């Protein structure tokens, strides 16, 4: 078995926001695939990004980080490429509003959030300082709620007594969503309770609005009803509003002659195989069937199902249809407040918080990561601090790695917009 991955590591995405806000390190929410699979000698992990599919030859072409390519032949192919952040056709927003899908995203957001407080400390009171102490979050789903709550908790607890010129507690966190409530996948009573907790924490909730512009120094939102636009001055915008298929998934759907929905999810048969291609399975976020949710549990169950189908093929048995078992949903809001929804069970407050913690620890890979994460959480509860707040600003002295809080996409965006006769910033090395 060959396992092709563009980062050669497993990342537990539900805890990326805790890495981004300094609670956990990247090592606590990720693990090398080679280390994870070292006892499975029949599994060969390979580093590479799938870029091309030849369905007739049953071959996938992958790109190495140095831009060279190699081929991987297959008898069965399981597509589990996941989704990426969607900007709904406004790709230019990505220059100023990073998403939350990868370790790079988490480290970029960590740099932006903590650097914002540091930069504000160097500025006199006024509009410019206020921009740096204003944080906008687009999207009121679990990730948006979690990151918004964490920034306010960070400002009011961990950073509260560490600065001399600014009061971190004055930081504004604005949460924008096009619906009428946060956490729409949860029961209305739970989402209403979450909204109250966020409001008490100091998060400003704005519903029924769409983001119409994102730029270096602000964000513009438009009311869905009145159509009126409102500008907010901010230097930190975080995007959690939507997802779409990665480019390879779109290419694979075209090559396989499979239909896909607006987000790029590929239509599959009841056994998760692609129509007309029983040797190709699509699992996780990419599987477009019966409203399957884009959650980790669906991907895990889908992987087990695809493996069972292949095993039954080899044994000459008939495949079974995929049946997703909803084990519930959980969302963290702030210390002592979380939601847990599993069938008839509805937990909030401290019971929900404890249940949330148990569920996430259970799904982390590696015993060491589990114990380390529990220890870090206990220390955070006891001391209100964040142990992994280090961020990288560049400044190695190399002209292509300037001293800046901006990411590579910001640098290239600035270069395109630099006025004639002015020096364009150098592109920055990857985080």
Outline the secondary-structure elements.
Elements: E1 2-5, E2 9-11, H1 16-20, H2 26-29, E3 30-32, H3 33-36, E4 44-47, E5 49-54, E6 59-63, E7 69-73, E8 77-79, E9 83-85, H4 103-121, H5 127-132, E10 134-138, H6 142-158, E11 172-177, H7 188-201, E12 203-207, E13 209-215, E14 218-223, E15 229-233, E16 236-239, E17 243-245, H8 247-256, E18 266-267, E19 273-274, E20 277-282, E21 287-288, H9 296-314, E22 329-334, E23 337-342, E24 345-347, H10 349-363, H11 367-383, H12 408-417
Parallel strand pairs: 1-4, 8-20, 10-11, 10-16, 11-12, 18-21
Antiparallel strand pairs: 2-3, 5-6, 6-7, 9-17, 13-14, 14-15, 19-20, 22-23, 23-24
Enzyme class: oxidoreductase
Domain FAD/NAD(P)-binding: 2-303
Region (Disordered): 392-431
How would you characterize this protein structure?
- This protein has helices spanning 16-20, 26-29, 33-36, 103-121, 127-132, 142-158, 188-201, 247-256, 296-314, 349-363, 367-383, 408-417; strands at residues 2-5, 9-11, 30-32, 44-47, 49-54, 59-63, 69-73, 77-79, 83-85, 134-138, 172-177, 203-207, 209-215, 218-223, 229-233, 236-239, 243-245, 266-267, 273-274, 277-282, 287-288, 329-334, 337-342, 345-347.
- It has 431 residues and is of the alpha/beta class.
- The protein has two domains: 2-85 and 244-314, FAD/NAD(P)-binding domain (3-Layer(bba) Sandwich), CATH 3.50.50.60; 91-241, 3-Layer(bba) Sandwich (FAD/NAD(P)-binding domain).
- A four-stranded parallel beta sheet has the order 12-11-10-16.
- A hairpin with a 2-residue loop joins β23 (337-342) and β24 (345-347).
- 37% of the residues are buried.
């Amino acid at each position: 078995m060959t396992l092709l991955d563009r980062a050669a590591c497993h990342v537990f995405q539900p805890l990326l926001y805790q890495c981004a806000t300094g609670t956990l390190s990247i090592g606590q929410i990720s693990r090398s695939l080679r280390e994870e699979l070292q006892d499975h000698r029949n599994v060969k992990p390979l580093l590479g990004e799938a870029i091309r599919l030849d369905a007739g030859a049953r071959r996938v072409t992958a790109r190495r980080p140095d831009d060279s390519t190699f081929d991987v032949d297959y008898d069965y192919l399981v597509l589990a490429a996941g989704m990426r952040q969607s900007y709904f056709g406004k790709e230019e927003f990505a220059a100023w509003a990073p998403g939350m899908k990868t370790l790079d995203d988490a480290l970029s957001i960590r740099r932006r959030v903590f650097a914002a407080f540091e930069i504000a400390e160097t500025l006199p009171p006024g509009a410019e300082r206020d921009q740096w102490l204003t944080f906008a979050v687009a999207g009121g789903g679990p990730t948006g709620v979690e990151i918004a709550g964490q920034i306010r908790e960070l400002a009011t607890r961990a950073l509260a007594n560490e600065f001399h010129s600014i009061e971190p507690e004055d930081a504004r966190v604005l949460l924008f969503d096009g619906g009428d409530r946060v956490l729409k996948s949860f029961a209305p009573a739970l989402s209403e309770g979450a909204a109250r907790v966020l409001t008490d924490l100091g998060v400003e909730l704005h519903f029924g609005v769409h983001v119409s512009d994102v730029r270096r120094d602000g964000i513009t939102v438009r009311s869905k009803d009145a159509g009126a636009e409102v500008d907010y001055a901010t230097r930190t915008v975080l995007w959690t509003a939507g997802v779409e298929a990665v480019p390879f998934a779109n290419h694979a759907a075209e090559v396989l002659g499979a239909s896909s929905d607006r987000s790029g999810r590929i239509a599959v048969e009841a056994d998760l195989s692609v129509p007309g291609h029983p040797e190709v399975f699509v699992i996780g976020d990419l599987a477009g069937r019966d409203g399957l949710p884009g959650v980790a549990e669906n991907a895990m169950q889908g992987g087990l199902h695809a493996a069972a189908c292949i095993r039954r093929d080899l044994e000459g048995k008939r495949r079974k249809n995929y049946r997703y078992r909803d084990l519930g949903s959980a969302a963290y809001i702030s210390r002592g407040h979380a939601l847990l929804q599993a069938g008839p069970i509805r937990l909030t407050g401290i019971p929900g918080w404890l249940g949330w913690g148990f569920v996430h620890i259970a799904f982390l890979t590696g015993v060491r990561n589990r114990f380390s994460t529990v220890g870090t959480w206990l220390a955070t509860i006891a001391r209100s601090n964040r142990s992994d707040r280090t961020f990288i600003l560049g400044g190695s002295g190399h002209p292509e790695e300037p001293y800046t809080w901006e990411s590579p996409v910001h640098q290239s965006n600035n270069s395109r917009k630099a006025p004639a006769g002015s020096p364009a910033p150098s592109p920055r090395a990857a985080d």
